[in-house]
Design goal:
By secondary structure, the protein is mainly alpha-helical. The longest helix is centred in the first third of the chain and has 15 residues. The N and C termini lie far apart (66 Å).
Length: 110
């Protein structure tokens, strides 16, 4: 009788999305689920591997001196808090990018 084969499924995360960190983490968590990644430290290292130099400075303290527990949650919370746009900013961005032509702003809201 041969031992059961164990196959590792690679986690394929896109580079960090500064414009929508909440959805980036939703996608990361879906990838973790598909790959069977449940360990906090493994998730943490996958996240660190996908953030660039302009982002890593926001979490440098968490990388240099990681917490004993909840490493993934701490880096996730920090990145979302630093990069998630406020509802006001999202609205201003939406209104600034829309060309209403001769329509009223109430048409956009509808």
């Amino acid at each position: 009788m041969q031992p059961a084969a164990i196959a590792a499924v690679a986690v394929k995360l896109p580079d960090f999305w500064k414009s929508d960190p909440t959805m980036w983490f939703a996608q990361a968590e879906a990838q973790f689920a598909l790959a069977g990644v449940t360990q906090d430290e493994t998730k943490f290292h996958h996240i660190v591997a996908k953030i660039d130099q302009s982002v890593i400075c926001q979490v440098a303290d968490l990388i240099r001196n990681p917490l004993a527990e909840n490493k993934y949650t701490s880096i996730k919370d920090r990145l979302i808090s630093r990069f998630e746009l406020t509802p006001q900013t999202k609205l201003e961005k939406l209104l600034g990018s829309c060309d209403l032509g001769d329509l009223r702003p109430t048409h956009l809201l509808a």
